[in-house]
Amino acid sequence: QVQLVESGGGLVQPGGSLSLSCAASGSIFSIVAMGWYRQAPGKQRELVATITSGGSTNYADSVKGRFTISRDNALNTVYLQMNSVKPEDTAVYYCNAQGYSDSFKRFGSWGQGTQVTVSS
After folding, report:
1. CA 9: distance to chain centroid?
2. Which residues contact 13 (CB under 8 A, 6 or more apart)?
3. How high is the mean pLDDT of the chain?
4. Are strands 77-82 and 57-59 parallel, antiparallel or unpaired?
5. What is the distance between the alpha carbons of residues 85 and 119, in angstroms, rounded to a whole number?
6. Residue 65 backbone class (left: φ over 0; alpha: ψ -120 to 50; beta: rest)
7. Cβ neighbours for 98, distance < 8 A, ≥ 6 positions apart
8. What is the CA radius of gyration of the chain?
9. Which residues lie closer than 8 Å to 117 by C-beta, 6 or more apart?
């Protein structure tokens, strides 16, 4: 099995910055892509940003220009740098990874989620 563990999250003031990290561990042969998703109260879980092992990125329009996703393939870790945060960024942020295990089985795993609250 592949496990994801997020670090970061917490309370930040509007306009401030916050960094999230997510490390994948387990029987991993390769990771195709990793990403961040979020779910605000009363809303569906939505994509925030994704990044492939090759470095291709995709961002939701709502965070483009403010958030930056990056990764360290050697550490199987994905990061989300959140700048100029807004109250509407408040949500539980979930890490996702997709790839292949050492037994060449496709996997898709989610982290437990970390709360980000933007408030003054």
Report:
1. 11
2. 118, 119, 120
3. 97
4. unpaired
5. 10
6. left
7. 31, 32, 33, 34, 106, 107, 108, 109
8. 14
9. 10, 11, 12, 90
Strand pairing of 57-59 and 67-72?
Answer: unpaired
Q: Which two tokens stand for residue 85?
A: 């945060």
Q: C-alpha distances in angstroms, 95 versus 13, 16, 18, 79?
A: 22, 21, 15, 9
Contact 22, 95 (CB under 8 A): yes
CB 49: neighbour CB atoms within 10 A?
21
Q: Please write the tens of the pLDDT for every residue from 17-64.
A: 999 999 999 999 999 999 999 999 999 999 999 999 999 999 999 999
What whole-number distance in Å separates Cα of residue 95 and Cα of residue 4? 7
